[in-house]
Fold this sequence. Notes:
There is one protein chain. The chain has helices spanning 48-65, 86-96, and strands spanning 3-6, 21-24, 27-33, 73-80, 103-108, 118-125. By secondary structure, it is of the alpha+beta class. The protein has one domain: CATH 3.30.1330.40. A six-stranded mixed β-sheet has the order 1-2-3-6-4-5, covered by helices on one side. The two termini are 18 Å apart. The relative contact order is 0.24.
Amino acid sequence: xxxxxxxxxxxxxxxxxxxxxxxxxxxxxxxxxxxxxxxxxxxxxxxxxxxxxxxxxxxxxxxxxxxxxxxxxxxxxxxxxxxxxxxxxxxxxxxxxxxxxxxxxxxxxxxxxxxxxxxxxxxxxxx
Length: 127
């Protein structure tokens, strides 16, 4: 199986020893995205919804760079530092994904990179 590294300047660059995404066969594995503005590398300011929207926009940009869309998502994992934001992340996700929605997990964690409060990764399958 061939692995193809996916990279785009329309999403933040990796801040560690990983790639934005890896395409293996017809499956795209997108690394965790936090609410970083790809133009500046800074954490998006504003309320939780603005940060969550940036996370999903980053996922979408990487998907597009690989020739996919978020409609191809089969699994999304969302990491929250406060599960009290569960309803808000559902609303924001519904703005970026269409039914039928992918499988999903939402996990509360103690901390995330750069002190952010939301991160998400995704697995997409072509076709």
